[in-house]
Amino acid sequence: MKNWKLWAGLVAVVVVIAAGWGAWWNFELRWRPKTITKNQAEIARILEGSGWVSPGLNGPKLYMISFRTCPDCIRFKKEEYPRLHKAGIDTRLIEIARADRNGVPKSTPVERATVAELWINRSWALSEKWDATPVDAWAAPGLKPADGDIARTAVIEAGRKSVEDLIPLLKKNGVNFAYPLLVWWTPDGQMKACACEKRETYRFVRKDLGV
């Protein structure tokens, strides 16, 4: 009887520990961003050399790789940009016109025209106007087409290449690329990254940036 009670007690302890660990993982650990410890300089070079646009604020930098119709990207911009900008965070948005996959188009001519313009002329006002317009209503007014323009097509390809280059570099740090991909630096200089598809990740970004 004593042995049975001892074993029952041990099982109960194990169950409690397992439940606590499961809860910690589910509500905390699984959402934490990764600290980038490998290839930091190369990752930073790709981000800084891309055609990002920003409001030009003087606070910490937050790079975000996005595509226009990405639902999780749209949500992050809508919910987090206002408070980030209020705190002086310079949100550096990198829009990508994704390549076709298995013959299925992943971008439109007007999307490619707009992305090329953003990369070339770096207009935050244009990105805001684009985001504020329903996707189906956006006609890229006054913008040069990227299709048929060698230089602008090259810009589109450069954006796609930057994603291709980042994927293995981030994977080495435990980050599986997804949109929106966020990269930032903590006050003590650590590079952090997150495929921040879920709201549960947002609090960690805000905390690291002091928001």
UniProtKB/TrEMBL annotation:
Spans traversing the lipid bilayer: 6-27
Keywords, alphabetical: Membrane, Transmembrane, Transmembrane helix
Name of the protein in question: Thioredoxin-like fold domain-containing protein
